[in-house]
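Customer escalation, tier 2.

The customer says the design service returned an amino acid string that "doesn't look like it belongs to this structure." They asked us to rerun it and document both sides in this ticket. The original structure tokens are below, unchanged.
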């Protein structure tokens, strides 16, 4: 099976690359996704071994902070059943889950944080979904070429 590459957005005030690296086994479930297209990527396309660019969003300087790897394929997001959770969804049940999550593991923090402003200036990344006008998805595919350029040439 061919390895795929992804970009996952997270708000660093809520959960950052440093938070992931400090978790037991450097692993965390990626819960709380409430967009159908992002959910479908996790549920249908993300596989164990896929690599992830962790992107800090909704912050002063958004950008790529590090690399993670999918270590557990999709399973129902239990936060959607928890009445006390900010991610509760009354239409999602254990019998018919609506939302899913994967587990990711910290691989490394980039030597140099890559701000969005810099990414936009790089011709090799001009077709990257992240850089398209109106791209707001919290999970999006990245090509192997984009991933390798970012992790080998820029970091």
């Amino acid at each position: 099976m061919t390895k795929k590459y992804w970009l996952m957005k997270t708000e660093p005030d809520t959960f950052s690359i440093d938070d992931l690296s400090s978790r037991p086994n450097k692993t965390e479930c990626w819960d709380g996704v409430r967009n159908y297209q992002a959910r479908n990527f996790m549920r249908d396309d993300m596989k164990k071994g896929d690599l992830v660019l962790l992107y800090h969003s909704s912050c002063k300087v958004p950008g790529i902070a590090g690399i993670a790897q999918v270590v557990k394929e999709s399973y129902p997001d239990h936060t959607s059943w928890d009445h006390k959770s900010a991610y509760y969804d009354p239409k999602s049940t254990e019998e018919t889950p609506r939302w899913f999550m994967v587990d990711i593991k910290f691989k490394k923090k980039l030597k140099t944080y890559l701000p969005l402003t810099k990414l936009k200036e790089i011709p090799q990344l001009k077709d990257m979904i992240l850089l398209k006008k109106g791209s707001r998805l919290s999970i999006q595919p990245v090509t192997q070429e984009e991933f390798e350029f970012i992790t080998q040439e820029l970091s």
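Tier 2 assessment: The sequence is consistent with the input. Residues 5-150 form a domain with the ph1033 like fold fold (CATH 3.10.590.10). The chain has a mean pLDDT of 95. Sent an explanation to the customer and offered a walkthrough call.
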